[in-house]
Amino acid sequence: MSYNLLKGKKGVVFGALNENSMAWKIAERAYEEGAEVLLSNTPVSIRMGNVKQLAEKLNSQVVPADATKVEDIKKVYEAAKEQFGGSFDFILHSIGMSPNVRKKVPYDALDYTKFEQTIDISAISFHKIIQTAKQMDVINEWGSIVALSYIAAQRTLFEYNDMAEAKALLESIARSFGYIYGREKMVRINTISQSPTPTTAGSGVKGFDGLMDFTERMSPLGNADADDLANYCITLFSDLTKKVTMQNLYHDGGFSSMGMSKRAMFMYNKSLNCDECDD
Ligand SMILES: NC(=O)c1ccc[n+]([C@@H]2O[C@H](COP(=O)([O-])OP(=O)(O)OC[C@H]3O[C@@H](n4cnc5c(N)ncnc54)[C@H](O)[C@@H]3O)[C@@H](O)[C@H]2O)c1
C-alpha cells in the first residue's frame, strides 16, 4: 500500500546487494512511495549480487563506488545530479563489513589492519558520504540522511566483534554531523538500530540463528524484519519527521528496553544443566 509519502522526492541508496539486503527493501519501498532512487555499491558487489535487476525495476541505474573513496562518492553524486536534474532529498547508508568477522579473527586477537578497514568501511564511509554531499551541496533543505546501526554500539553482544566499535562511531557521526548540517541547511541525520535480520552481512555473524531466536523471544513485538525496517525508514525520509535529527532510533520490537522475558526465561530454564554455558 502506498501513501505517496515520498512523492517528488529523490534519493541515493548505498548498499543494496541482493533481495535480502535492507537497502534493497528500502529502495523498493521508497520507489513505491513515489521517490526516484539512484543505487550504488562496490564494483565487486554489483558483479556478485543482482542489484542491476533492482535498478531496472526502479527505472534507475547503479553507480559503482567504494564508499571508502571520496572520489568514487563524488562520481555517485554527479550521476545523481544528472539523473535527477539537480540536487536531491535523502541518502541511505546501508554499508557494513568487518574483515575480522569474515576471517573469524576473535576480538582479543584482532588484526589491526583489518580493524582499520572495518572502521573505514562501516563508519568513516558515513562521514565521507555526508561530508562530500555537503561540500558538493547536493542535498535539498530539509533533506534526510539515515544509516543502519545495531545495539552492539551500546551493549556487548557475543561475537559481534569489532563491528561494535564501528557502530558506536557511526552513531556518533550522526550526532556530530547532524548538528552542523542541521544548523547550516536543516538536513537531518539519524541512525536506525535494527533487529538482527537474515541478510548476507547479518548471517556472517557467528551464532546468528541463536541470536535471532533470542531477540525474537525477548522482544514483546518480535524481531523487526527488513520490510518493517523499510516502512520505518520511509517515514524518516518523509516530511512527517522533519524535526527528528541526531538520534539513534531503536527499531527492534522492544528488545532494547528488555532485561528478561517470559519466553526467553522458558528457554533458559530448559538449558540450566547445559555444560557448555559457562562463558
Ligand atoms: N543484518 C542485520 O542483522 C543488521 C542489523 C542491524 C544493522 N545492520 C546493518 O545494516 C547495513 C546493511 O547490511 P545488510 O544486513 O543489509 O547486509 P548486506 O550484506 O545486504 O549489505 C551490506 C552492504 O555493504 C556493502 N559494502 C561493503 N563494503 C563496501 C564498501 N567499501 N563500499 C560500499 N559498499 C560496501 C556491500 O556490498 C553490501 O551491499 C549494515 O550497515 C549492517 O551492519 C544489519
Could you walk me through the main structural features you see in this protein, from its secondary elements to its overall organization?
The chain is of the alpha/beta class and 279 residues long. It has one domain: Rossmann fold (3-Layer(aba) Sandwich), CATH 3.40.50.720. Helix content is 46%, strand content 15%. The chain contains 11 helices and 7 strands. The chain has helices at 22-32, 43-48, 51-57, 70-84, 99-102, 112-136, 163-185, 200-203, 208-218, 226-237, 262-270, and strands spanning 10-14, 36-41, 62-64, 88-93, 139-149, 188-194, 248-251. A 7-stranded parallel sheet has the order 3-2-1-4-5-6-7, with helices on both faces. The longest helix is centred in the middle third of the chain and has 25 residues, at 112-136. The mean pLDDT is 96. Bound molecules: nicotinamide-adenine-dinucleotide. Residues 14-15, 17, 21-23, 41-42, 45, 66-68, 94-97, 121, 148-150, 194, 196-197, 199-202 line the site of nicotinamide-adenine-dinucleotide.
What would CATH call the architecture? 3-Layer(aba) Sandwich
Number of strands: 7
Order of helices and strands: EHEHHEHEHHEHEHHHEH
- CATH classification class: Alpha Beta
Q: Please report the distance between the alpha carbons of the first and last residues.
A: 47 Å
Mean pLDDT: 96
Principal-axis shape equals globular
The oligomeric status of these chains comes to: single chain
Number of distinct helices: 11
Q: CATH-wise, what's the superfamily?
A: NAD(P)-binding Rossmann-like Domain
How is the main sheet built?
7 strands, parallel
Distinct ligands, ions and cofactors found in the model? nicotinamide-adenine-dinucleotide
Q: Given the helix and strand composition, which structural class is it?
A: alpha/beta
- Approximately what portion of the residues adopt beta-strand conformation? 15-25%
The percent range for helix content is: 40-55%
Query: Reading side by side through the largest sheet, how are the strands ordered?
Result: 3-2-1-4-5-6-7
The CATH topology annotation reads as Rossmann fold
Alpha carbon gyration radius: 19 Å
**How many domains comprise the coordinates?**
1
**Uncertain spans:** none
